[in-house]
Hints:
Distance between the termini: 40 Å
Number of strands: 0
Largest sheet: none
Structural class: mainly alpha
Helix content: 55-70%
Order of helices and strands: HHH
Amino acid sequence: QTLVTVTLGDRLQNAADLCKTMGSLPFNDDYIELVRQLITNCSLTHLEQLHLKSLFFNP
């Protein structure tokens, strides 16, 4: 079994490509992992993390 590591940058690029072609992102495991990695990214400031949370979790 081969272990494949997908970086945050890879996930962001894939998401951008999907948005260009489909107009939105499908709600799947890749989307969930992208959101999780963005929110837990320690290089973001607290304010940036709060902004991301508001984008993804507020209707």
